[in-house]
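Lecture 7, part B: from sequences to assemblies.

Below are the input chains for today's worked example.
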Amino acid sequence: MTAKLEKLVAGLRRGEPASVGRAISVLEDRPELADRLMEMLYPLSGNATVIGVTGSPGAGKSTLVDRLAFDLASNGRKVGIIAVDPSSPFTGGAVLGDRVRMNSATAAPAGAGQIFIRSMATRGALGGIAPTTSDAIVALDAAGFDVVIVETVGVGQAEVEIVRTCDTAIVVLVPGMGDTVQALKAGIMEIADIFVINKADHDGADRLDKEVRSVIALVEDPNGKRWVPPIVQTVATEKKGIKELASEISKHREWAAKSGALEQRKKTFLGDALTRKIGEQLMQRFRGQADYEVWMEKGISELAARKKSPSVIAAEILSFLDRD
Amino acid sequence: MTAKLEKLVAGLRRGEPASVGRAISVLEDRPELADRLMEMLYPLSGNATVIGVTGSPGAGKSTLVDRLAFDLASNGRKVGIIAVDPSSPFTGGAVLGDRVRMNSATAAPAGAGQIFIRSMATRGALGGIAPTTSDAIVALDAAGFDVVIVETVGVGQAEVEIVRTCDTAIVVLVPGMGDTVQALKAGIMEIADIFVINKADHDGADRLDKEVRSVIALVEDPNGKRWVPPIVQTVATEKKGIKELASEISKHREWAAKSGALEQRKKTFLGDALTRKIGEQLMQRFRGQADYEVWMEKGISELAARKKSPSVIAAEILSFLDRD
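Predicted structure of the full complex, as structure tokens:
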């Protein structure tokens, strides 16, 4: 098995799209191989810039990300895109996403950096969306992509968490959809390092700009030590504002590296990743015990009868299985 | 402490809104008391019907839920609403939600059942949104609410998971926003027990209806054993279609109880809750060990230096701390 994985990693290091894709599939679907693969990929990673993009559905995130990737590739950078799709076994959401987009983004300028796109449909698996996405980022990073863009399709707690941990978090809004209020409600305003007002040629763009500015003003730091998120107006379909966006991303990255904010964010993220792994391994061990299934069955019946609360039953199961 | 909690539970049993609110706050913010409170509430719960509502931002979910609650209350039922807001320390999302809505929904018809609304801003805490929401459902259930409506503000993996575990899952779509494709992408079509097309007086409602029907046709069961989600057209702002929606909810509930689907769903949900608690307690114990902090610090440094992968470091920490 290890020989096969070594071959896969070699292909990935050469930047072969098929190998990169297969590596991500292993991380998604083959938990028994995923740990071993991560062991091999991890030491090769740590160089990519990771950009997160979120915003309400219909904000034109896909087009924006495509254009941004194209612009970065024109400047010779290798760009990997991960589109985070919530689980959809029934609709095959990932396939849909791939099909809709492959055309525009893979047509990178001749002689320029490569663009790779991958939709992640995480089928509500064990660890959920966040861990699988961060593993996929490591894979693209190890494959030598200079920039990894993570784009969320859904807007929820898990998705916001993913974007929050990227080096630079971009929140995309559009005029005329009551978007500020919706974004406020969804808790995504606060994670923005950069705001994009897309479809800026639509009515209401200036009003939205004003609204966002007033929200930013609430967190502005009189000492000037905190980052103040800039607002970039774009019309992604016409490639307007993309260069400005790329430039703001560089500026934020520079500031974050110099101020220590980047290191701090990475530390928090790594700590969370480690805690999650410890939790997984503790649980795995626990599941491996002989009477686990029997006790779970019994516990669920007691819960259904509302005899005891989940934490009481959990404690009982733990103390029993510990005695062995 | 227990005496205080007993007083709180007594108030909650009398249906006092202040006590219900305080109980939910304890479950949200006071982990050291939450387990004990859940122990007291759990045996009192298990009677409420739980309805989940999701759909893209701007679909008019809040208004729809308000109208539905009002209709149910008019028929003498006590209704509790939980609006699931992703974490927002900065904007105070929950406060916003409460303020915007309290007016309409609390003005329940005289002599009718009570309506209680609560926004949950879970501040990205330990367990995340899902566990806190299910605890809050237990609290409302124990307080004697006949119906608990859970409405998500965000649309992501965590939110879809919450709605999926409710007795009846409602997906709200609106015409003219490319909503079917967005919903497909977000993986929410598959969880619907009932589809609502809100703002059905807008252009494109019939086309949307057709699109949804074609999606439903994909999963229709020739043997007629599976539930086929009905489509209800509503104009929530004008209270149109609300009675039809209430009636479809009853029909689904009846079918689910008779077919055994409800019991199956509850079992899965309880199993997940129990597993989660076991995981939490295992982790808690582990965190309590003397050298935990030291080992974590060391592990994060190794990760940052990309020496080893998270799973390798996790295994090392586990094996070391086990030796004690």
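Note for the exam: The two ends of chain B are 34 Å apart (CA to CA). Keep this in mind when comparing with the next example.
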